[in-house]
User: Fold Poly(A) RNA polymerase mitochondrial-like central palm domain-containing protein from Citrus sinensis.
Amino acid sequence: MGSYNVLEPILKDILGMLNPLREDWETRMKVISDLREVVESVESLRGATVEPFGSFVSNLFSRWGDLDISIELSNGSCISSAGKKVKQSLLGDLLRALRQKGGYRRLQFVAHARVPILKFETIHQNISCDISIDNLCGQIKSKFLFWISQIDGRFRDMVLLVKEWAKAHDINNPKTGTFNSYSLSLLVLFHFQTCVPAILPPLKDIYPGNLVDDLKGVRANAERQIAEICAFNIARFSSDKYRKINRSSLAHLFVSFLEKFSGLSLKASELGICPFTGQWEHIRSNTRWLPNNHPLFVNSPFPFRLLLIFCLPLTIITTLNSY
Assistant:
């Protein structure tokens, strides 16, 4: 207990440095506003809206966090779903407009990625931005993480701490094949689901449906239905008077996070991490996870039942095992 008492204020101090200030929120809102002006000047993007997502929307960003933005195309009241070639063309138009306006540097058009992305950094605010087209799914999963963080404030604190810890150990950079921030958030989520007693429920208890099927038709109706289902189930979980309460300190949760995943080398060949069920899942029980030639599987629950596998190099396993 003594060591936890020493660690707790240290973690709190780190959080004090990581937590965004009011000016950090205002700076990002200014970047979004400026981008809206640029988008409005592009003929092919007339009627499109500029909508942030990612850690900014889920409130899981630090003072130095980047900004993810989706440009949602006009499709009346219905959900738009542009093809990859259309997205590439529109991002190319936006790239030319940004160059013409000025104020942006390190512009990089990743046209042939699974999801085409335009990357840049603002000169005056030093904010890194990733721009995509019609990334409504990214917006929804950002809202899910925000809703989840409202259940227990320790989730947000842990995500910030784990991301900073991962950066310090050079395992928070998807460009080098390590964790992205989203997968780190899922690891923290899974940790909270598998604590004893559990702090967060399996995501199937929050939203049991299939977002791929449900994000169709009139956008306002689809989003409202998803939000209402999640709000009802979260309220039911939070108000369950028979639920055992986990009162672990942040220090205890951080140390137990490292302990839980320190044995990955023994588990990763046979078990995958599934926040949807809140359990370790046998890889061989799901044919979509085979062949098993990756060090670690993290089953993304957003959109539910659409499998995304994070392939992580052995250096990550080694780093975690060192704890």
Remarks:
- The beta strands are 49-53, 67-72, 104-110, 117-122, 128-133, 271-274, 279-282.
